[in-house]
Every structure is written in structure tokens, then in C-alpha cells.
Design goal:
The chain has 226 residues and is of the alpha/beta class. It has a single domain, classed as Rossmann fold, CATH 3.40.50.300. Helix 1 packs across helix 8. The protein is globular, with a radius of gyration of 17 Å. The two termini are 22 Å apart. The chain binds thymidine-5'-diphosphate (TYD). The site of thymidine-5'-diphosphate (TYD) has 15 residues, from helix 4.
Length: 226
């Protein structure tokens, strides 16, 4: 198997935290600096996973239970990892992904009441070693996020997961903060109640050193080859 030489950054958080805006902004900055950037999202990101996305977000799988949904998220993730993310990382790209394993830990694990061991076993199979180098958790009170998500939604009806109660959204926020506390080397909590510019600056400060390390790693492997 080829070595991974890219950088894998995931974005997490509740509804309306501004993940997609911030991913776009980070991608623009990195591209302007000459990096090869791939923006992607979950559930979805590959043709197989996009097919499963529809089943999950429409609520079509809801009646079969949260265990079934968790397995479908994992199946979609595995297709996305093997078809898109791993090849991009092997080619040296910076991959920016809207939601990944922590969404399953929070939505299916914590608020879906599935055992942590079951979720972790699914993740091991789904990602097969493709762990994010860095995860940005966009944090804001559930009420603020939901209001923003509804405004942004326009004519879109809320999806299966957005329809849930405010307490559920607040529980998810707490769960994300616990994940961050347990894995501080990978996770960074970003206060998403501030202006778009302030959030983008903080994200860039977190990611820039990792991108620089990537440059050093490439330079030294080029030296050892040449
Ligand atoms: P999406 O429309 O992509 O919205 P968002 O802007 O909130 O990311 O919807 C994805 C929904 O799927 C979201 O409500 C979270 C949920 N989800 C899970 O429950 N588990 C998962 O593993 C993933 C990736 C997403």
C-alpha cells in the first residue's frame, strides 16, 4: 500500500455552526498558496456513499432503528475512504472533510444510545487506519445553531437529524466537547459564535503549522530520493 503523504482535516459540530463556509474559506487560502486541496463531506463524498446519503437523510432508514443507521453511515464512510480520501492522501493532497467519525460517535453513539464499543468497532472497519490528523470542532449553543440552520434552510425542510429536540442538540454539543478533551492532540474546539473572519483566522492558525510540516516532510523525502 502506498504511504500517506497528505494531510487529513475534518470539521465537526452541530447544525448551523458554519462548517461549510469555513471549509470553503480554508480551501481558498490553501489553494492560493499552491496546495492541492480536496473538499468533501459525509454522509457522501463518493458515488456509493451519496446513494446511501439519501436513504439516511430522508429518514427512510429511521424505522429500521439506530443500529441500522449507524451501519449505513459506516458503509458510506468506508466507500468514501477507499474511493476518495485514501487515494487523495496518498497523492499528497490536503483533504478537508465536512463531518467524519466523530459525527457517528456523537449522533449515533451518544444521542442514539448505541454502545461506544459497537460504534468504535464500526469505525475501525469503516476507516481502516485513515484517522484525521486534525479535527476542528465548531462549537456554539444549540439554540443559536438551529436558528441559523433554519434561516439558511430556506425552502428546505429540516433533515431527519435536524428535526430532533433542542436538548438532543445540546447533548451533542457536550459530547463533542468531551471528545475534544479526550483527544487534545487531534481536536481543536473553535468558538463559532464569533464573526466568520475571526473563526477563519483561528482555523488557519491551527492548520498552518501542519501544512508547513507537510512541506518539510516532502522536502526531506525529495532530498533522500535525489
Ligand atoms: P448535512 O445536510 O450534511 O448537514 P450538516 O450541515 O449538519 O453537516 O446532514 C448530515 C446529517 O447527518 C447531520 O444531521 C448529521 C448526520 N450524521 C450522523 O448522524 N452521523 C454521521 O456519521 C454523519 C457523517 C452525519
Amino acid at each position: 500500500m502506498a504511504e500517506r503523504s497528505g494531510l487529513f482535516v475534518t470539521f465537526e459540530g452541530g447544525e448551523g455552526a458554519g462548517k461549510s463556509t469555513q471549509i470553503r474559506r480554508l480551501a481558498d487560502v490553501l489553494r492560493r498558496r499552491g496546495h492541492d486541496v480536496l473538499m468533501t463531506r459525509e454522509p457522501g463524498g463518493s458515488p456509493g456513499a451519496e446513494a446511501v446519503r439519501h436513504v439516511l437523510l430522508s429518514g427512510a432508514a429511521e424505522e429500521f432503528g439506530v443500529r441500522m443507521e449507524a451501519m449505513l453511515f459506516a458503509a458510506a464512510r468506508n466507500d468514501h475512504v477507499e474511493e476518495v480520501i485514501r487515494p487523495a492522501l496518498e497523492s499528497g493532497a490536503i483533504v478537508l472533510c465536512d463531518r467524519f467519525i466523530d459525527s457517528s460517535r456523537v449522533y449515533q453513539g451518544v444521542t442514539g444510545n448505541l454502545e461506544a464499543d459497537f460504534i468504535e468497532a464500526l469505525q475501525r472497519v469503516a476507516i481502516d487506519g485513515v484517522v484525521p490528523d486534525c479535527t476542528l470542532i465548531l462549537d456554539l449553543p444549540a439554540e443559536v445553531g438551529l436558528k441559523r440552520a433554519r434561516k439558511r434552510g430556506g425552502s428546505d425542510a429540516p433533515d431527519r437529524f435536524e428535526r430532533e429536540e433542542i436538548e438532543t442538540h445540546e447533548k451533542r454539543r457536550e459530547a463533542y466537547l468531551e471528545i475534544a478533551e479526550a483527544d487534545p492532540a487531534r481536536c481543536h474546539v473553535v468558538n463559532a459564535e464569533r464573526s466568520e473572519d475571526a473563526i477563519a483566522d483561528e482555523i488557519f492558525k491551527v492548520v498552518e503549522p501542519l501544512v508547513r510540516e507537510l512541506g518539510f516532510a516532502r522536502a526531506s523525502s525529495a532530498e533522500s530520493v535525489g
